[in-house]
Amino acid sequence: MTKEQKRYFLGEGEIPTRWYNIQADMVNKAAPMKSPNTGEDITVDELARLISREAACQELNTTDRWIDIPLPVLEMYRYYRSTPLVRAYALEEALGTPAHIYFKNESVSPVGSHKLNSALPQAYYCKQEGATNITTETGAGQWGCALSYASKVFGLECAVYQVKISYEQKPYRRSVMQAFGAQVTPSPSMSTRAGKDILTKYPNHQGSLGTAISEAVELALTTPGCKYSLGSVMSHVSLHQTVIGLEAERQMQMAGEYPDVVIGCFGGGSNFSGIAFPFMRHNILDGKSTRFVAAEPESCPKLTRGKFCYDYGDEAGYTPLMPMFTLGHKFKPANIHAGGLRYHGAGVVVSQLLKDGLMEAVDVSQLSSFEAGLLFAKAEGIVPAPESCHAIAAAIREAERCKLSGSPEVILFCLSGHGLMDMSAYDQYLSGSLTNYTITNESIEQNVSQL
Ligand SMILES: *Cc1c(COP(=O)(O)O)cnc(C)c1O
Fold first, then answer.
1. Dihedral sign, CA of 232, 235, 237, 240?
2. Can you tell me the distance from the alpha carbon of 147 to that of 388, in angstroms, rounded to the nearest whole number?
3. Which of 137, 296, 347, 372 is the S-S candidate for 266 at Cβ 3.0 to 4.6 Å?
4. pLDDT band at residue 209 using 50, 70 and 90 as cut-offs
């Protein structure tokens, strides 16, 4: 460790200097990703054509348990980390539960969500390796905001494809990205072949993360000096997010507690992995028996009702084939307000962990997620992101179970972001115009049977 790194050594209220790579500790390693071109196992070289070489190495690293956080990234983490670990006394009281409820508040980052934890290292590695431009997709806009800001910090031009429905529903996130100097395009667009193909077939396509990924990947592959960057799903993104759980582990120690249940909402799995993996290592290595619960929307239930098989990460089939729980890459999620959770697949590591019974998944309807979010807001004074409301709903279910059994379990969840830019969604909920979306087994079967 260098002298500078020592300054950041995890001491009182300090931040971790290394990320935790759960791939090194998994008894059953995830199956390899396959090249979309050759069908062979994916290599660092092939991945590095698309993303930074360092991120590609991290993606395929199944041996190093700890990976150093580069100093310039630590300097930036320092602006908002460590984030608070809060005991939700008022929520406990509102529920009348004997459970101890804690939340890790990632909404205090400059862009309002956990996404910056991975945007910073990804932009940094691209710059280090000589890239001039970076491109990505974004759903609700949180990832786009985070990458736009991280690009500005490290001196890269940033182009963001935003899912069309979110571009229209959440105009302020687009403004934030533009404020940081990014170029934002609603997807599907006519600016790429993938976008054109989709619009020709479905002129009213509302966009999905799958379409936006196809467009960003195409731009990166066809533009010199341009790298692609992904805000979730990939294992290196989960790796970067482990700062959340590593800090929480230390903070829970300071509180004299250890969690019985750890909960995160689930889009592609990064905030869930971030809070869960550092604790899960003690289940794997030290015989702890903490439960890990991923909370997904009822309208996009890949973990609870999807199929485990090889599938593409995007609609057009440009990304590697990943062994994962999926609803099929052609699945069109309903237009729920938790835009960050509208993704058809789950990361390969999380998928393997779920398959092996190391974690659980539950689903939450749109209406019950907002109901939980408002209960939390009234108690704790923070309006949660619609995505985070799913974690809160799952935490409340656990707390109510504790109430019935009288057991004072310790529940920890990740508040992945605040909802101050999602107030139109709250308006709709409060005026009674939001609905639930359930999907039939037939429509799931129809999508996955083509894989
Ligand atoms: C993007 C996002 C999510 C979902 O993404 P994961 O990778 O599953 O964490 C959840 N909450 C917020 C606030 C987000 O911005």
1. positive
2. 20
3. 296
4. confident
State pLDDT tens for residues 421-435.
999 999 999 999 999
- What was the pLDDT predicted at 12? 44
CA 294 – ligand 1 centroid, Å: 12
Nearest to 301 by CA among 224, 366, 377, 380: 366
Name the residue at shortest CA distance from atom 7 of ligand 1.
270
Q: Each residue of 12-65: pLDDT tens digit?
A: 457 999 999 999 999 999 999 999 889 999 999 999 999 999 999 999 999 999
Cα 264 to averaged position of ligand 1 atoms, centre (Å): 9
Q: Are strands 66-68 and 133-138 parallel, antiparallel or unpaired?
A: unpaired
Q: Using an 8 Å Cβ cutoff, are 122 and 153 in contact? A: no
Report domain extents, the chain.
Answer: 76-112+236-448
Within 6 Å (CB) of ligand 1, which residues are found?
113, 115, 142-143, 232, 265-272, 340-341, 385, 387-388, 416-417
Give nearest CA residue, ligand 1 atom 4.
267
Q: Ligand 1: distance of its center to the CA of 115 in Å?
A: 7
Residue 2 has a pLDDT of 57
- Neighbouring C-alpha atoms within 13 Å toward the C-beta of 382: 23
Q: Whose CA is nearest to atom 14 of ligand 1?
A: 340
317-326 pLDDT, tens digit each: 888 999 999 9
Q: Choose the residue to mutate in 103, 271, 303, 324 for probing ligand 1, maximizing ligand atoms within 8 Å of C-beta.
A: 271
Distance from Cα 232 to the centre of ligand 1, integer Å? 8
Tell how far the Cα of 2 is from the centroid of ligand 1, in angstroms.
33
Helix axes of 348-355 and 270-286: crossing angle, nearest 10 degrees: 50
Contact by Cβ (8 Å): 264, 331: no
Distance 111 CA to ligand 1 centre (A): 13
Residues in contact with 292: Cβ distance below 8 Å, sequence separation at least 6, in sequence order:
261, 262, 263, 272, 276, 279, 280, 358, 359, 360
113 close to 141: Cβ distance less than 8 angstroms? no
- What count of residues does the chain have? 451
Which tokens sit at 432? 């009674």
β-strands 157-163, 133-138: how paired?
Answer: parallel
| Strand blocks (E) in 29-129 | 66-68, 85-87, 100-105
- d(CA 362, CA 295) in angstroms, rounded, equals 5
Residue whose Cα lies nearest atom 10 of ligand 1: it is 387
Q: What CATH code is assigned to 76-112+236-448?
A: 3.40.50.1100
